[in-house]
Design a protein that fits this description.
mainly alpha, transmembrane, DUF3429, 7 helices
Length: about 150
């Protein structure tokens, strides 16, 4: 079976994706347990990492679109959409934290929708949602935990 049509994600992709969750989870939980003087710094680092990951995820879609450019009429759409995640990350970093968190939250939700769209149009591997769904749930949950910390006046 060609790896593009495999149902399960490659083991290395899974391991690296889980490792990439560490800053999200530790940052979000850290807001609740670290001394108050460090919380602004932790929030800034969490949002900076979220912006980096949005740029990374946009680049994945860019690469998939380039790979499919000659075989799919949907590739140009995906190529155009691939710049939205990093732009949302940049926007989020320019906003006050109370507005940035919802932007990041929605950006990661929309990115998952884009991931599913890419798979349904044959632009991303069949296994991609099996990787992205649990990863997206952890990222979105972490951002929600961070948002709740902010609303509690961290």
């Amino acid at each position: 079976m060609h790896p593009f049509n495999a149902i399960r994600p490659p083991r290395l992709a899974l391991v690296l994706s889980v490792a990439g969750l560490v800053p999200f989870v530790t940052g979000a939980l850290g807001l609740w347990v670290i001394p108050e003087g460090w919380r602004d710094r932790v929030m800034d680092e969490l949002l900076a990492y979220a912006a980096v990951i949005l740029a990374f995820m946009g680049a994945i879609h860019w690469g998939l679109a380039m790979r499919a450019e000659e075989t799919s009429d949907k590739a140009p759409i995906q190529l155009g959409l691939s710049v939205i995640p990093p732009l949302l990350g940049w926007l989020g970093l320019s906003l006050p934290i109370a507005l940035a968190l919802p932007v990041f939250f929605l950006a990661f939700l929309l990115l998952y929708v884009a991931d599913r769209w890419a798979v349904s149009h044959g632009l991303a591997p069949v296994w991609y949602p099996a990787l992205r769904k649990p990863i997206s749930l952890v990222v979105v949950s972490s951002l929600l935990v961070a948002w709740l910390a902010l609303l509690q006046g961290f």
